[in-house]
């Protein structure tokens, strides 16, 4: 009697010559189209029967791992973060993923086989992290990262279940938002008026823009006529590589010739994030004043200025580094003597102010850039004060952030004391006419206006002493004349004496290939410069740049200047090193052949 042949694809059980039982189960099809037959072996017939039935059950439920590479936690997470996630998420998101993967998950769990990873392994890792000092928020971020990574592994059938969906993440208490009080905001604004980029901090406290949104603003986003700011991009944290070929022995970010390999900005994260914001009139005036100040800095920096049209920049036009901006915020808190807080707490303050003032929810959502599905929850976090406190605070803040007769509608009661303190300087009055006047130091080609006659006289006296034969004097202009005819208008009027420093300069030019050009003049010199002489003056100890000069010779110029002679000399050496490399490798620096 002949045995009937089993249909193709049926499971097979047999006993080998060595006495062990073997089973084969077809679970699918391989990538090459052949049947995917899985093998199991046991000592007895009942054991092999059970093993085959279990494998068939997994096959029927779709829980058999895909054939191929046997992943470890380390190999899968590395593959996922570099080859999958990096192509589909933004720069800030991938930075967070990499920290979680390389600093926490791989050191703690990397040796496990991926299919053997258990929820308990993850929970013990979270407990170990918190025991070592990590916050619950950090452990929660790690949990979210591994959950996303393992969800992808399930989709690609590298594993059948995601243990991170079973593991319990650390309890993450949603901390109550603690906005600054009215008095704290007053002190912050008073201190902000004394530093560079004053408008940057007023925008943070009044409009609640995120740090990246403020630093990513460009002048094309500011509509002075309509009184509107358009938020549509965010500043990214720079990422550097060595410009010296890793010869300096430092981290890339501290390399003297570091090169930024990341774009400066990215589009807003969501459609809700891209939004127009109406700006109070006084804040628009402050932005106009800031633009005039930036124009003076551009003239002062001359060839060192890099034109990128950002609203808030360094002294040479580069967009502000978020890390530097963070430290300036901390300095502002100390100077104002208010409690230490995150930079993001300025955004909390603005949101609370809007809710306090009774701005409609839809308008608050639009200003803050909250997505519709999350806005109600976010508003609940901010709206936690009792009604009497809300009303009292609204009365104070109305006069603090907006001009009289503004959103609160009462020109008599809304003008609080802080508004008077923060208003623009008013010119002095002439003792004879008792009319507002400006005292102008007329230096020939320079007109320098002052509120006080003493400051103007002091400048003229020193100017005449340093430049024999060049006469200078003090003129009295009425306010209307200066506003109409004076360069810079009212914003240029000074309420303090001028500053003079010795500025050290260095200059060199190189031909293609790196050969120095004989200039027949000293390469380094110094000059006494006033702060109203933008072509000579700088506040920085040393700053430098290299640039390829337009023209047939294709010369590479080196320009250095600063207040510290030693620092300028050291910067000159660094700049020359880059200039030689730039002269020899123009494509590396994006220099066009059209120069």
Automatic annotation (TrEMBL):
Pfam families the record matches: Phage_int_SAM_3, Phage_integrase
Gene3D superfamilies referenced in this protein's UniProt entry, alphabetically: 1.10.150.130, Intergrase catalytic core
Q: Does the keyword Metal-binding apply?
A: no
What SUPFAM superfamilies does the record point to? Answer: DNA breaking-rejoining enzymes
Keyword Cell inner membrane listed? The answer is no
Keywords from UniProt, A to Z, are: DNA integration, DNA recombination, DNA-binding
What CDD domains does UniProt report for this protein, alphabetically?
A: INT_ICEBs1_C_like
The protein's superkingdom reads: Bacteria
For the region Disordered, what residue ranges are annotated? 403-428
* Parts of the chain that traverse the membrane: none
Q: Which residues form the Tyr recombinase domain?
A: 175-395
All copies of the Core-binding (CB) domain together span 71-154
What is the protein's name according to its record?
Tyrosine-type recombinase/integrase
